[in-house]
Amino acid sequence: MWGRRRRSRSRSNSNNSSNSSSSNSSSSSSSSGSNNEPPERDPITLEELGPASQVFCFGKARYNALSLHTCLVASADFRCPVQRIEIPEAELARLDKLVGRQGPSVLAAKRAAGAQASARFERDALEALERFAGELVCEMMEAVEGESTRPVRLVASSTFPEFHHVVSQMAASSPLGREAARQVVEHAIAFLKGPPTRPTRCTSGLLPVCISFLSELLLVVRSPVTPGAPVDYKDEDGGLAAALGHAVV
């Protein structure tokens, strides 16, 4: 009987000691976990930011300098990925200093992207003008073949000035635009004349008028002028007006 009581007491003491040790370990782990905060991560790669010397701060966002530099150069979008705010060139220069020779200059990449955007805009504008000029040439062809519903004189008096204005805009934009204007006029002449084996059948008498107008305009476009100067066509000798007078109205 006394032996059983001693055994039960020893068991209870051991249980109490184990409970106290477990509670102490849990409290120590919780206290240690509360003291260790998770490391700050880069919002692009989700990796640790690294040393403070490689951290780039912009507004409220903090980046690893190399990851932000790589992202901006690869995407050609020079806005803050988190705040979507345009990063000034002064900040891009500071980012270049942090990265050093680990990558190309992000500032130079932004300036090159601006030049590419302006060149792309010029190409799109020239393409739009070429399409509009093509529609005007189709109107000329309809009038030449007698398929136009408008009077020939009205077609010539409205289509010719519009075509001249479009070609002038192209030629005055840049050397590239001047070359495109030359090709547009040359293609218009070839299209209106038709192939040598099957020339265009002119039923309205307007074909010589169109060819005369386009030939005079082609001479003006081919002549060397200062870039940006408007292309001016004047029927000084009255040849176009005389030819138009012989056309069927």
Keywords:
two-stranded antiparallel ribbon, 8 helices, rod-shaped, single chain, 2 strands, 249 residues, mainly alpha
Could you explain how this protein is built, in words?
- The protein has helices spanning 2-35, 65-75, 89-99, 106-144, 152-173, 175-193, 207-222, 239-246, and strands spanning 55-58, 61-64.
- Helices cover 64% and strands 3% of the residues.
- Strand 1 and strand 2 (61-64) form a beta hairpin.
- Helix 4 packs parallel to helix 6 (175-193).
- The protein has eight helices and two strands.
- The N and C termini lie far apart (137 Å).
- A two-stranded antiparallel sheet has the order 1-2.
- By secondary structure, the chain is mainly alpha-helical.
- The protein is rod-shaped.
- The model is unreliable at 25-34, 226-230 and 235-249 (pLDDT under 50).
What's the pLDDT, averaged over the residues? 77
Number of helices: 8
Strand arrangement, major sheet: 1-2
Rg from C-alpha positions? 39 Å
Could you describe the largest sheet, including whether it forms a barrel? 2 strands, antiparallel
Number of strands: 2
> Shape from CA axes?
rod-shaped
Short description:
With 249 residues, this protein is mainly α. The chain is built from 8 helices and 2 strands, in the order αββααααααα.
What is the topology?
Blueprint: H1 2-35, E1 55-58, E2 61-64, H2 65-75, H3 89-99, H4 106-144, H5 152-173, H6 175-193, H7 207-222, H8 239-246
Antiparallel strand pairs: 1-2
Helix pairs in contact: 4-5, 4-6, 5-6, 5-7, 6-7, 7-8
